[in-house]
Structures are given as C-alpha cells and as structure tokens.
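Q: I'm a student working through a structural biology exercise. My instructor gave each of us a protein and asked us to get a predicted structure, then write a short paragraph describing it. Mine is Serine hydrolase. I'm not confident about reading structure output yet, so if you can add a plain explanation after the tokens, that would really help. Here is the sequence I was given:
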Amino acid sequence: MEELLPETRRALLHRIATVQAEGRAPALVGAVVRDGRPVWLDARGTVHGQRPTGDTQFRIGSLTKTFVAVMVMRLRDEGLVDLAEPVVRYLPDTGAKLRDGVGRATAHQLLSHTSGLAAEAPGPWWERTPGELRPRLEDVVPEGPAPHPAGRRFHYSNPGYALLGALVEHVRGEDWAGVLRREVLEPLGMRRTSLKPRPPHAEGWAVHPWADVLLAEAVQETGRMAPAGQLWSTAEDLSRWAAFLAAGHPDVLSADTVARMREPAAPSDPGTPASGYGLGLQTTCVDGRQLVGHSGSMPGFVATLWLSTADGLAGIALANATSGLAAAALAADLVAVVAEREPRIPEEWRPLEDVDTRLLDLTGPWYWGASPFVLRLKADRSLELQPMDGKGRGSRFRAEPDGTWTGLDGYYAGEVLRVVQSPDGRVGHLDLGTFVFTRKPYAPAAPVPGGVDPRGWRGASH
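A: Happy to help. First, here is the predicted structure for Serine hydrolase. I'll explain a few features afterward.
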C-alpha cells in the first residue's frame, strides 16, 4: 500500500476515531483510494473481539444498486437492452400490473429513479422481512397508480431496482447474483463481495439511544428485493470498486460508459439541491467538491463510497450500526482530508511526438459572430474550444476516425465539430452543431447563417 504522509494518516485516524466514538458504532472501517490504488485503511471497534480489517465483510445496502446498474449498462453496450424502451419489453410472462402499469417505465428511468414508482415494496418493510412474502415480481410493486408520472421528477425507488435485477436475469437467463459474480466481481478481483455473508463478517447491531447497550439485528434474505440492497462487501473490495468507478475496466465497462453513469441523469430533489442521481450512482457537492458514489443502509449496517474524479480520490466508510453514524459525511471527510493535505500532483506536460500541420492550422482565434473563442490542440490530439474571456460555452473534443470531433463536456457534450474547407482547399470555418465559427468576426461573405451585412463594420455615424 502506497504511503500517505504521517500527518495525513493521523488526521484520517482521528476522523474515524471521532466518528466511531461519537456515533457509538460497534465497529467501523475507513479507507482511501488515490488514483486507483488503496493508500490508507484503518478501523476502530471490534468484531468477535478482534479489530476489523479490510477483509471483514459488512452489509453495504444500497451500494448494491451500483453493481446492478453496471450489469444493465453491460447489456446496453452489447445492444441487448435499449434504455429508452419500457422495461416490460424485457420481462416476459409478467402480470397485468407490470404490463399495463409500472412496467411501462424505461430502464433509463429505473436507473435514475425517475420512473415515478413508489419508494418501497408493499406489505411489511422489505428490509426486515423474508423475501418469501414477495415471491413474484409483481409482489414488489404496490397496487394502483404510481405516485408520480414517469420521467417528471426524481423519486428514489427500491422496487425499481428489483425490476432491473429481474431484467438482468431474463436477458441473461441466469440469476442476477451469478451474472454479477462472473461478469463483474471476478474480472475486478472482488472475491469478498457476495449475496450472503462469509466469515469474517460483522454482526449488525442497533445501539440504544439512551444507553451504551446493543441489540442484535436479524439478517433477512430479501428475495426479489435483493438487487436493491442485499450485498455484503469489504473495504478492500470496495477500494477496487472505487477504482473501477473512476476509470472503468476493459473486461467490465469502458471508461466512457462509466463516465456516462456518473453524469447527473435526474433533476435534483428540491429538498437537497446539491444532490442528484446518475445511472445507478448518487451525486453530491460537499464544500464545493463534486462527489459521486452511493450510500447504503440495512438493519444493523451503514456504508458509503464517495469518489472525487477531480482529486483522483475515493473515501469508503463501513460500520455495523443501524443509525446514529453519518457514514456519508465520513466518506466525504476522508476524501477532503487527503485532498487538502496532499493535493493531486498534475501530470507532467509533454508536447506532441509529431505535429500534424492540418491540426495545427485549426488552432488559434475563432469567432462565433462577434464573440472570440480560442481553439487549442492538446498533446493527446484532442481539441479544446473556450471563450477568450472565460465566460460562456466551451468544451473538449475527441477526434473521431471520420475526421470530425465529438464534444466531451460542457454545452457541446455529444455535439459534432466539423471542419469545412473553403473552395481553395484550406480551412474555411468550423461547424459545431450548426453554429458557425469563422476566422474573423462577421467577415464579408462569411458563411454565417442569415448572411452578413455587405457594408461590413462601420462607425455609428454611418
């Protein structure tokens, strides 16, 4: 494990020690990942009389949803699932409740919690009751209309992820947990993540609100609802998961697809405007730092993984207490401690190995009407278009085999940048999603939509 500075390590230990003591957690494990590598792990409290380690399993609750989302995105990348299609298309032989009702929600809406479905399954609380109470897929969905119209707002739905788990099973023809193990966990080396606990694992506890005593929490097999929160994992395995969520893995999901999952796909809840949701991943902003990941809780356990791609850091917190411990805040704090004490060192600048003069000819000032922009060529042959005053729309662009560029971020994300040649074969202008950029502001005869006044620029007296 790569070492952090002693002062940083002590600050991290102080943070988890404070949270464990004040939150009265029987056991707590914290971990930090930097640039895809674990750099710190420590624990407080005991499990079976021993200090927990990075190999001790804890139940991770809704962090399970991130794994289910990855399996769905694999199906999408293979062309087996269209995220824009109603999920019922992939769930044959279901009852009318799904065919005519909530099954009309799309996989994209289920992933982003914009399906409008109810937050919980019908009947007694699913987290505390056996899955046999809901043997059929229809049993996880309440009767009657959904609380909200599909696609209108963010509304967290655990049954929605039960449907996504069933989607994986129907398309793959195999239990979702088996698909997860073969397609995701094994390629990533996550051998200590499982549907059921495996020793060494922590017991789940409730802590009395007014006395320092414990009550054991029962572990239920949640059946059809398992994709919403059943998994167990370790700090070491979740460190591998954090590295994957930052950069993807060639045997699981590409970096581009994982980046799409991290992007907000649902509007913020009015009550928590700093928070949002991507495709299976929560997003939040803490003290100006953008974080993505997920929190989780089940009776007796809380867990959180937060990733800051800008800092190249992830924080992980696992504890075995039902309530009273802010695991989400702790994971964010672990990221902040390292980011502030040991800020990321930028990659060395290196020039291009060889220069393509055609690309070099594209660089420099361009004008959208009278607004000046500058186009830069980067060492990886990508392009960057930014307004000269730093205000307005700018984006980075990836080169494509056909000679165009695709926007990667900002206003022009996903838009196509084309170079249009003049009759003499030289660079004429840029076409960016029908926006025309020229070398001079409103030059005579420039191909500006609507034309340019032939009298050209002139003073106010004319």
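A: Here are two points you could use in your paragraph. The mean pLDDT is 92. The chain has two domains: 6-341, 357-437. It's a good idea to check both against the output above yourself.
Q: Great, thank you!
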